[in-house]
Amino acid sequence: MDAAETARKLVEERYPQARAAWLGGSVARGTATSTSDLDITILLPGKPAPLRESLQYADWPVELFVHTEDSLAEYCEKDRQRRQPSMMRLVGETIVLFDTDGSGLRLQQQGQAELQAGPPPLTPHDLAMLRYRITDLLEDLIGADSNDVRTAVAAPLWQEAANLLLTGANHWTGTGKGILRELASYDTTHGTAYATALPAALREACNGKPEALIANADTILTPYGGRLFAGFQLSGD
Length: 237
What we know:
It is a single chain. The chain has 237 residues and is α+β, with helices and mostly antiparallel strands. It has two domains: 3-117, Beta Polymerase, domain 2 (2-Layer Sandwich), CATH 3.30.460.10; 124-224. 56% of the residues lie in helices and 13% in strands. The chain has ten helices and five strands; from the N terminus they run H-E-H-E-E-E-H-H-E-H-H-H-H-H-H. Strand 3 and strand 4 (60-67) form a beta hairpin.
């Protein structure tokens, strides 16, 4: 069976009371690989939602995200605050599998609108924290005395630099391969090449040549005042 048919059959068997269901992720985007799973979000009128479950079905690894409309809204808001729109994409960028009452199309369109609106802007505190973390990692990379240390430092550095680049421009960010997709989207809008330049700089840094990663991080920091160490301060409650 194809992916959508398999996903639809699974929902019918396990959640016949579903109001709506969506197939998202790489399968819906048309970018699936040999290890891709079925990301299925299911809207229920009540319990047992909310829950998340991983399972194997018809030779597919499956991730189920089971929600009520209230829990779906709550998780979307959490993602908006952390500027990583996982739940919005799992509903907004999808194939609608079921829509018994119009909620499938309505919530899909709502997810698309939220994605288009982008994340909240960085607060002064968020910006200072990012600048400080990047500065701290840069100093560790510059002072590294082995490729093992460079690798351990360069890995979080390129991701923090990418986070600042994206969220500073009111663009969504992500983790893992998701951050590469967000960088590619940013590049398309801004005519840059960070989706290839930052991973390439990371590889060079791990092999003893950190100059490109340092230069890229400093370029990203520059519009926000550059590196931040002296004067950085955190206050507790």
